[in-house]
Design brief:
The protein is an alpha+beta fold. It has two domains: 39 residues, no CATH class; 94 residues, GMP Synthetase, Chain A, domain 3 (2-Layer Sandwich). The chain has two helices and eight strands, in the order E-E-E-H-E-E-E-E-H-E. A hairpin with a 5-residue loop joins strand 5 and strand 6. The radius of gyration is 19 Å and the shape is elongated. The two termini are 37 Å apart.
Length: 150
């Protein structure tokens, strides 16, 4: 199997540590050298110009579904020309009353090469299989639905 690492770095840098005053800005460092500026969501006093963990979670689910879908489509002989997903995650109270990303709606819009377009049943199978095989979806309790854009 494989391991995946990330280092998250934050520093107070001498600023007041009152709840409304400290910076939520931090940096995600990945094993391949990529650094990504992150923060809390704006609703939680974060910088809107940085990625927040909740949005990153939604993006990870969407990205995993897409990558799995592409592999399946390729293996079935379908040629995908484009894939765009306007995914939405919902931060709500879960069954125990805790805030959680309880559900994510994936809304992929996929364009195929005209000669190899799947039928509606094949497309449904591809999405269902992609969901069942997605590593990230298999790792979470969040309800994930796929409603392909028309």
């Amino acid at each position: 199997m494989s391991e995946h690492t990330a280092t998250v770095k934050w520093a107070r840098d001498g600023a007041d540590f009152g709840y409304k005053n400290y910076s939520r800005d931090h940096v995600w460092h990945f094993e391949n050298g990529v650094e990504l500026p992150a923060s809390a969501a704006p609703a939680y006093l974060g910088d809107p110009s940085r990625v927040d963990p909740e949005s990153a979670f939604v993006a990870a689910l969407s990205s995993c579904h897409m990558l799995t879908f592409l592999a399946l489509a390729s293996n079935k002989g379908f040629v995908v020309d484009g894939y765009e997903d306007n995914a939405i995650g919902f931060l709500e109270k879960n069954a125990t009353g805790k805030l959680a990303v309880t559900r994510v709606e994936l809304r992929p819009k996929i364009t195929f090469n005209g000669d190899t377009e799947p039928t509606r049943a094949e497309l449904s199978w591809l999405h269902d299989k992609a969901h069942r095989e997605c590593f990230i979806a298999n790792s979470v309790t969040t309800r994930i639905s796929v409603a392909p854009a028309q």
